[in-house]
Amino acid sequence: MSTDKGLFDDAIACRFPSTDRMHLFAGDCMELLASCPDNVFQLIVTSPPYNLGKEYEKRLRLSDYVSQQAEVIRECVRTLRHTGSICWQVGNYVEDGSIVPLDAVLYPIFTSCGLKMRNRIIWRASVNRCVNRFHQAA
Fold first, then answer.
1. Structure pTM?
2. What is the DSSP secondary-structure string of 50-113?
3. Measured between alpha carbons, how far is 6 from 48 in angstroms, rounded to an integer?
4. Would 60 disulfide with which of 26, 29, 65, 109, CB 3.0-4.6 Å?
């Protein structure tokens, strides 16, 4: 890579051969992205928190969650090469029995940053996995 070697000193490299041209990072994405120069990554793959209120995350109002994700998306786009790609894996926001697909909510943020959607993958969960989560509207 033609970037400053110091950026990749914290990469989790011990599991990959030194000849590989990939780097895996663990940590706060905003701290990492703030330390990155512009146009450094060819591919960004991430699965940000779904905002489900799990024990390891604080559940936010949908508008606050979207604002937070917008900051991350803008920083990712800043660090992405012009020929690069982002794979952004998210689920659904569920409140009061209503389901909001997060990719649909975040899509306008990506387009406002000049990105184009090239593919959308929807994972179909196994039957009866969330049978009590979905309710028909009255």
1. 0.76
2. -----TTS----HHHHHHHHHHHHHHHHHHEEEEEEEEE---EEEETTEEEEHHHHHHHHHHHT
3. 25
4. 65
pLDDT tens, residue by residue, 117-130: 999 988 776 655 55
CA distance 114 to 108: 10
Residue 58 corresponds to which tokens in the numbers above? 């604080």
**Residues 16-38 pLDDT 10s:** 566 777 777 778 899 999 999 99
CA atoms within a 13 Å half-sphere pointing along the CA-CB vector of 48: 22
Six-digit token pair at 110?
């990506």
pLDDT, tens digit, 9 for 90 and up, residues 80-114: 999 999 999 998 998 888 999 999 999 999 999 99
Q: How far apart are the first and last CA of the chain?
A: 57
Say if CB 106 and CB 117 are below 8 A apart.
Answer: no
Q: Which helix (H) or strand (E) holds 46?
A: strand 41-46
The token pair at 116 is 């184009």
